[in-house]
Amino acid sequence: MSDVLFYLVVLMLPIAAISGYRLGRRGRKSTSSSEGGLSRRYFVGLNYLLNEQPDKAIDTFVKMLEVDSETVETHLALGNLFRKRGEVDRAIRLHQNLIARPSLSPEVRNLSLLELGLDYMAAGLFDRAESIFKELRTEPKHKAVSLQQLMFIYQQTKDWEQAVTVAEQLQSVDHQDHAPEIAHFYCELAEKQIQQGDSKPAMVSLKRALQFDPNCIRANIIRSDIAFNQGQFKQAIKYYREMIKQNSAFVPEIIERVAATYQQLGDTKGYQSFLENSLESGESPTVVLAYAEILRKQKGDRVAADFIAQQLQQKPSLKGLLKLIEMHIEHAQPSARPSLEILFDIVNRSYQSKAAYRCLNCGFGSKALFWQCPSCKSWSSVKPVVGLEGE
């Protein structure tokens, strides 16, 4: 017997017990008549299960049940079993059958509606699920879970205006900290507004993002891009400096934009000062290499190489080691160059095989930065890898 058939049999045992109890309370004449009907239907249903015809078995058992306070839990348990096993169509049919019963109490009907909404979510029928959860969010008992599901739906459909509204309502209901999520919803909304050519509303959205989460570095990255594209280079630099205070580990994400901004201003000293401040906040290999490039232009390769070597002693990194080996290859004797190239290749392979970013929630690793983890769907959980193999 397959697992699903086993669980169905287990779930159906209470049906016989409940029905038998009821029959025992009736008169002898009616008991004899009903018991025969019960036995036939019950064993017909079991026969369908044993012959792996669960659809017919469900129909048979559902017909046996009177939906009331004593049997509704059996219905709901069976529906949950089907949904968890991926048999969503059967779960939907069973829960729809429950809701269609006019004798249901309002409480049982709402619970059945909630289960049907979860069925629709599992089936990807977001429009139907949305209608149900909109109805249930007015019910205090189901408000929090309904808002959670609506928030998920609006993320999936990229309806960020609705996502923001629902998330703010949810925060006041479940008393959980949804600030990072709300901030990212505002950032998504801002990016949508930028694509539509509406930079002013986008800046308002980004301001709201930072009001909810002052550490939302993504908001400052987008604000700096808007300022740069509008030729407001000093304003862009202001946002870059704010980002260092928020989290210096993300400086490598913007280092090229920072260099381009200072280049537009013709301010080489300003760029050098920015890198020096970044080094004080955190010893990022990317920042180290950017500062070494300035030293190389000003004072030559030897000074730049000595600076990289000094930084590697304080904080070893494969990225910094690769650059140091590359610089030695350029100045190596012909006899020593092949060995250095082999060493470079080995270190480079090791470095390229490592993730540059990792989700602190589920461990997902990637070479690119994701604001929402593709694996566990959590926001702000993907961070730069720090240490020998990362920044």
Automatic annotation (TrEMBL):
Renumbered ranges of TPR repeats: 183-216
Record's bilayer topology term: Single-pass membrane protein
Transmembrane segments: 6-24
Residues that coordinate or bind Fe cation: C359, C362, C373, C376
Cytoplasmic topological segments: 25-391
Major subcellular location class: membrane
Recorded GO MF terms: iron ion binding
SUPFAM superfamilies: TPR-like
A Pfam family hit: Zn_ribbon_LapB
Family (UniProt): Belongs to the LapB family.
The protein, known as: Lipopolysaccharide assembly protein B
Organism in which the protein naturally occurs: Pleionea litopenaei
